[in-house]
């Protein structure tokens, strides 16, 4: 080993800290970048030694390769330094362990599959650049402290069949490079290689990691192993098949083909197979063997899940739109030092020379900038203009209803070339103006509007601002962001191309935090609408590109937690939150993160406790409404009504609270109060669910024509909503309009063919039952319970199906189960349940509500 390599203390701006490892002619050091203040690894070689000439060439070649790669799953090149006779590659320091070392700790199969998928992602990135790694093995895969896999050591890689180490660009053949146990047949025989060689090595790695041995047997005898790699056909053993699963086993078998042309899968495709790998056949639920993904199998879904997951209240094929009680995320804080800033609707006036095409851009710039600036304030929460505007009265009254401690009012007067902005702050007991700022901005310069508004707003809260860490963004990037924001309606009308555009935007400006937040909303909407995990995968990749400096940003952490929870990686989500508790000082951000964790992680008890705390921290119509929904989901109807009443005391026209109160009243059989509340809710919110809710209440009151009229209004808003169609069909049937009823039932059946979701199965089964096709109704119900064995959303539908088919025993059991999940007794007062009145169990369970039904 060169003496020079043994006594390095500094290379350029890098302070050498300690040695990490060494080979025959090189040393790897841990060093500190004095300018960027981060730890790095430096691979050093002494260029003055003739014996190292080849290694120097290889090191320079590796630098050229790494410079082309940009993946969160490849160790990144930062710099190349030369000093005296030293050459060093400055690369990302990964402070974890190798994959080989981590596998010795027996991680779960799910974790190993994720690591392998990340390795495949890294390979895919390299292969897109025409780069083959040529030495993929467990020792060249590093697992970071955050459990992310990264491929290292591209020292012998090949590029588009051109060897960087050859002066003439010719491919070197007749030589073997790489670790012998991971070689492909073409490598082992010294033949030219390309990216397909990596796929063979990847299959070896997958097999070793999951099965626990080499696919070609014992590795101690190098010559014998290489002979088997080159000559012996691969056969997938039965025990390996059971571990890998059918589909992944097929992929691995194909990639272990001798001829490169026979390997049919790309690295990207392998990554997707790894992510979608199913639990192996024959695995028992109580098996605790490592590398096997265990899934919990609860005997029954708890009551809270039955209500929150369905988003609708079942009633005789009628569904009360429980979207009204779906949890509405809110800001809150951890103690009474948290402040709440309400943003009033931004007022924009224009003169005749103003270009109206600029209005959406200017309006969005002002709105998003003001919101983002408030959210950046320490221990300060945002009360949206939507929530604030929903309350009538003067500023003092509206502040009381929303829990605001101050109010911001923004005015813009725009002409041909400029806008005059005026920002006012209201606070104090009377909510009077305490500060005001005015300034002009150019109408065409959106980033100037953004930057000046942000600076002026933060200046109104000097104690909470604590310096502005927001980085500048170019005009073209900001306009691209706004285009996506407007076209997607802030994520509500998301399209896959929106996420692709944001991905590219973030690659150009990785410090632009609002783009990450919008990417989360777009991905969230796409995932909800399509159920396709590819959108979550893309969001996860976008987040992985975030610079280290953003790892502690609450927006980034919130997006990461959301992804983990949607992928059912709950332990990792909890670890992220624990990390946030250590590094995030903003109490408001922390409770928002915990609220996300509880809501998206299906932790109702935790969510209930947070809602109770929030209603004390920020007494407002919204916080009491959220508390009411949580109490309702647990069957705490008295507590739910008390919280609703508090919400309506603060805002008597709050449509969501009115709808919830009507729902609770209807469940308790108080139809007069339910009809009153739904009618009042419709005065300010003419939604399909409110019309449908009113229709159900009227139908329960035997006002079938009134019910039909309201269901028609609901269908005018959403004409293919199968719940509304089912409701109106039942109303026509009760009104003795059997032909019309049959047409609507048929429409439900057509729209749910083939059924895929719980709602589609449920509506389809009820439509068949009401149309008299009992065999299809029962088949649909059975298929639903097989597809969703842990859901309790089918009991009421089952009660209808079995009642209509005259299976009284099964119907009575379904009635009891429906009541246990929170369905109100009032839903069993419809005429088709009359045939159950001869069943003593039915009468006992449903009285007194069904006394009138069973009186005759």
Describe the fold and architecture:
With 856 residues, this protein is an alpha+beta fold. Helices cover 51% and strands 12% of the residues. The strands form five sheets. A six-stranded antiparallel β-sheet has the order 1-2-3-4-6-5. Strands 14, 15, 16, 17, 18 and 19 form a six-stranded mixed β-sheet that branches. Strand 18 and strand 19 (432-442) form a beta hairpin. Helix 6 packs across helix 9 (246-255), helix 8 (238-244) packs across helix 9 and helix 31 runs antiparallel to helix 32. The longest helix is centred in the first third of the chain and has 20 residues, at 109-128. Residues 159-177 and 278-336 have low confidence and may be disordered.
What's the structural blueprint in terms of helices and strands?
Blueprint: H1 3-6, E1 10-11, E2 14-22, E3 26-33, E4 38-46, H2 53-68, E5 77-83, E6 86-92, E7 97-98, H3 99-103, H4 109-128, E8 131-132, E9 141-143, E10 149-151, E11 158-159, H5 185-188, H6 195-211, H7 222-231, H8 238-244, H9 246-255, H10 267-275, H11 303-310, E12 313-315, E13 318-320, E14 339-343, E15 347-350, H12 359-376, E16 380-383, H13 385-389, H14 395-402, E17 406-414, E18 418-427, E19 432-442, H15 446-459, H16 462-465, H17 475-487, H18 496-508, H19 513-530, H20 534-544, H21 554-566, H22 570-583, H23 587-600, H24 604-617, H25 621-633, H26 637-650, H27 655-667, H28 671-684, H29 688-700, H30 704-717, H31 722-734, H32 738-751, H33 758-770, H34 774-787, H35 795-804, H36 808-820, H37 840-846
Parallel strand pairs: 14-16, 14-17, 15-17
Antiparallel strand pairs: 1-2, 2-3, 3-4, 4-6, 5-6, 7-9, 8-11, 9-10, 12-13, 17-18, 18-19
Helix pairs in contact: 4-6, 4-10, 6-9, 8-9, 12-15, 12-17, 17-18, 18-19, 18-20, 19-20, 19-21, 20-21, 21-22, 21-23, 22-23, 23-24, 24-25, 25-26, 25-27, 26-27, 27-28, 28-29, 29-30, 30-31, 31-32, 31-33, 32-33, 33-34, 33-35, 34-35, 35-36
């Amino acid at each position: 080993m060169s003496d020079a390599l043994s006594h390095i203390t500094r290379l350029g701006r890098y302070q050498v800290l300690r040695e990490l490892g060494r080979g025959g002619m090189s040393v790897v050091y841990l060093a500190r970048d004095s300018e960027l203040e981060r730890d790095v690894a430096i691979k050093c070689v002494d260029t003055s030694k003739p014996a190292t000439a080849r290694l120097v060439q290889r090191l320079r070649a590796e630098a050229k390769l790494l410079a082309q790669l940009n993946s969160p799953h490849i160790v990144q090149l930062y710099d190349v330094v030369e000093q005296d006779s030293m050459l060093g590659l400055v690369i990302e320091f990964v402070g974890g362990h190798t994959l080989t070392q981590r596998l010795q700790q027996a991680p779960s199969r799910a974790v190993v599959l994720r690591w392998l998928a990340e390795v495949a992602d890294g390979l895919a990135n390299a292969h897109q650049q025409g780069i083959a790694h040529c030495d993929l093995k467990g020792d060249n895969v590093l697992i970071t402290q955050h459990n992310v896999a990264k491929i290292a050591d591209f020292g012998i890689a090949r590029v588009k069949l051109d060897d960087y180490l050859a002066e003439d660009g010719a491919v070197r053949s007749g030589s073997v490079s790489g670790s012998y146990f991971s070689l492909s047949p073409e490598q082992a025989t010294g033949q030219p290689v390309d990216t397909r060689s990596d796929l063979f090595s990847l299959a070896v790695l997958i097999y070793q990691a999951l099965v626990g041995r080499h696919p070609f047997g014992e590795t101690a005898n190098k010559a014998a192993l290489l002979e088997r790699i080159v000559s012996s056909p691969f056969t997938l053993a039965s025990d390996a098949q059971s571990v890998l699963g059918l589909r992944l086993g097929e992929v691995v078998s194909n990639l272990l083909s001798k001829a490169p042309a026979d390997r049919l899968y790309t690295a990207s495709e392998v990554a997707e197979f790894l992510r979608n790998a199913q639990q192996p056949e024959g695995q028992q639920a109580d098996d605790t063997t490592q590398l096997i993904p265990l899934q919990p199998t609860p005997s029954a879904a708890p009551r809270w899940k039955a209500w929150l997951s369905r988003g609708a209240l079942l009633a005789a094929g009628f569904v009360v739109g429980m979207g009204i009680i779906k949890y509405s995320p809110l800001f809150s804080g951890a103690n009474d030092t948290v402040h709440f800033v309400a943003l009033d609707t931004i007022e924009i006036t224009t003169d005749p020379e103003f270009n109206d095409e600029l209005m959406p851009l200017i309006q969005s710039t002002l709105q998003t900038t003001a919101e983002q600036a408030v959210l950046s304030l320490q221990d300060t929460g945002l009360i949206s203009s939507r929530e604030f505007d929903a309350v009538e009265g003067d500023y003092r009254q509206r502040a009381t209803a929303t829990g605001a401690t101050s109010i911001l009012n923004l005015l813009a007067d725009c002409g041909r070339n400029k806008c005059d902005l005026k920002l006012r702050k209201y606070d104090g007991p009377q909510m009077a103006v305490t500060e005001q700022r005015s300034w002009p901005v150019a109408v065409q310069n959106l980033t100037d509007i953004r930057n000046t508004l942000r600076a002026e707003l933060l200046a109104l809260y000097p104690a909470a601002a604590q310096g502005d860490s927001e980085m500048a963004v170019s005009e073209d990037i900001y306009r691209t962001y706004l285009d996506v924001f407007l076209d997607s309606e802030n994520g509500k009308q998301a399209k896959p191309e929106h996420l692709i555009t944001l991905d590219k935007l973030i690659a150009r400006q990785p410090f632009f935090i609002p783009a990450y937040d919008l990417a989360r909303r777009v991905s969230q909407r796409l995932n909800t609408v399509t159920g396709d995990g590819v959108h979550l995968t893309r969001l996860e990749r976008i987040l992985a590109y975030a610079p280290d400096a953003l790892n502690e940003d609450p927006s980034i952490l919130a997006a990461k937690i959301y992804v983990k929870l949607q992928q059912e990686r709950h332990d990792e989500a909890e670890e992220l939150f624990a990390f946030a508790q250590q590094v995030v000082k903003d109490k408001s951000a922390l409770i928002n993160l915990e609220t996300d964790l509880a809501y998206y992680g299906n932790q109702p008890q935790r969510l209930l406790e947070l809602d109770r705390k929030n209603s004390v921290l920020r007494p407002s119509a919204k916080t009491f409404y959220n508390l009411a929904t949580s109490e309702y989901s647990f069957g705490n109807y008295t507590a739910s009504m008390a919280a609703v009443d508090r919400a309506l005391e603060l805002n008597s026209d709050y449509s969501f609270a009115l709808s919830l109160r009507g729902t609770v009243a209807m469940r308790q059989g108080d139809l007069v109060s339910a009809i009153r509340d739904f009618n009042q809710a419709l005065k300010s919110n003419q939604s399909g669910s409110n019309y449908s809710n009113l229709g159900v209440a009227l139908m329960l009151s035997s006002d079938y024509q009134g019910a039909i009229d309201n269901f028609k209004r609901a269908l005018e808003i959403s004409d293919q909503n199968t719940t509304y169609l089912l409701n109106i069909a039942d109303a026509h049937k009760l009104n003795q309009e059997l032909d019309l009823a049959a047409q609507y039932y048929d429409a439900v059946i057509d729209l749910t063919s083939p059924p895929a979701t719980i709602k589609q199965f449920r509506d389809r089964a009820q439509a068949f039952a009401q149309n008299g096709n009992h065999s299809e109704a029962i088949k649909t119900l059975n298929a639903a319970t097989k597809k969703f064995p842990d859901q309790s959303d089918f009991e009421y539908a089952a009660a209808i199906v079995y009642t209509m088919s005259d299976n009284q025993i099964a119907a009575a059991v379904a009635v009891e189960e429906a009541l246990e999940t929170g369905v109100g007794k009032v839903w069993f007062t419809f005429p088709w349940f009359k045939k159950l009145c001869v069943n003593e169990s039915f009468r006992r369970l449903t009285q007194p509500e069904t006394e009138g039904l069973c009186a005759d």
